[in-house]
Amino acid sequence: MKCIVTYCIQFMVILMVPAVLCAQSGDLKLLEWKPQSQLVVKETRILQPKFPVIDFHNHLGGVLSGFSVESTQKCLEEMDKAGVVQCVSLDAQSKDDFYKEHLRISHGISKERFLVFFVPDFSRIDEPDFGRTEAAKLENAVKMGIRGLKIYKSLGLTLRDKSGELVPVDDPRIDPIWAKCGELGIPVMIHVSDPKAFFTPVDRYNERYDELGAHPNWSFYGDQFPSKEEILAQRNRVFAKHPDTIFVGAHVGTLPEELHIVGNWLDTYPNFYVDICARISDLGRQPRTARKFLIKYQDRILFGTDTYPDAEAYRIYYRFLETDDEYFDPAGGHHLQARWMIYGVYLPDETLEKIYNKNAKKILAMYKGK
């Protein structure tokens, strides 16, 4: 009898295997897998923020965005839909004097609504007296309407001088530019390094495997790149050396995976602020820790998106900041950054208002050219 039962079970398993294999074809690639959650949870739609918003981190003058009078007017329309009163564009390149064209177009639409930040031309770093020359150019640009400085992540990561050496963030040739920003009372929006996963092998353990699969050039793993830790140490030495200059660390200081360390930096450097642009995906997967962090450091955090103005993208940020909604997709606020969903942090009104606009106003009021 026992043998008969065993035989029957084995026979049933054999019959089931083809059905299982049919259900799981095996042809689906991980990068093509787009699971749709079956979880039913509350969904709060925030059309307008509780307080006026200043988007302190955006890119309106890039080649890919087709920068023009028409594109800038379209940005303004999207801002109006979403309650965004001002937007900072970080694309006013010193190279070829593009900053003049950026100012002309942006301020031609609205000098009050668009704020433009200057980008140094580091391709000239080998020239004699580069720092002082570029600082003088910055000063003249500020007289024309520039209101801040932007540092791209190539500094310390991929930018090399004519000798072939990487240019560190704390290269002394740049010191006159940092100092000039402090003298003029304008902030430095500084983006150095990238997510931790970009500096680790692109393998089955990498939590941003999907994103790096779509953008393999975003991987900075290998001996040809410095470590993320060293780049951040270089940046922090600049903060310490230039205490009279305000620095805003893009993307939660580029370490949202370790908010306790970002908090230590904020405690150590009074001239350091951070924005939340393009990192609600990281903040929202640790909602309790993020909420405590955002409330504790509410005087040092700025709103930003790093996403071309779009009313619906802004509203995902508002949902994250204002509601206690659970398990929703943040990708529409920027792009796919990982496979996880996020949770809202339902910030108190006092904290919200500071992050939405008051902290930005405080920094912009430091400008000494009035």
Would you write up a description of this structure?
This protein is of the alpha/beta class and 370 residues long. The chain has one domain: Alpha-Beta Barrel (TIM Barrel). It contains 13 helices and 8 strands. The chain has an 8-stranded parallel beta sheet. Helix 2 (69-82) packs across helix 3 (98-110), helix 2 runs parallel beside helix 12 (311-322) and helix 4 (130-144) packs parallel to helix 5. The longest helix has 22 residues, at 2-23. The model is unreliable at 11-17 (pLDDT under 50).
Task: Give descriptors for this structure.
single chain, 370 residues, alpha/beta, TIM Barrel, eight-stranded parallel sheet, 8 strands, 41% helix
Walk me through the topology.
Layout: H1 2-23, E1 53-58, H2 69-82, E2 84-93, H3 98-110, E3 114-119, H4 130-144, E4 148-151, H5 175-184, E5 188-190, H6 209-214, H7 228-241, E6 247-249, H8 250-253, H9 259-268, E7 272-275, H10 280-283, H11 287-296, E8 301-302, H12 311-322, H13 349-364
Parallel strand pairs: 1-2, 2-3, 3-4, 4-5, 5-6, 6-7, 7-8
Q: Whole-Å distance between the termini?
A: 97 Å
- Report the total helices: 13
- Mean pLDDT, all residues: 92
Known CATH architecture: Alpha-Beta Barrel
DSSP helix fraction: 40-55%
Major β-sheet annotation:
8 strands, parallel
Enumerate the spans where pLDDT stays under 50 for 5 or more consecutive residues.
11-17
Instruction: Please provide the ordered H/E string of secondary-structure elements.
Output: HEHEHEHEHEHHEHHEHHEHH
Number of domains: 1
Number of strands: 8
CATH topology: TIM Barrel
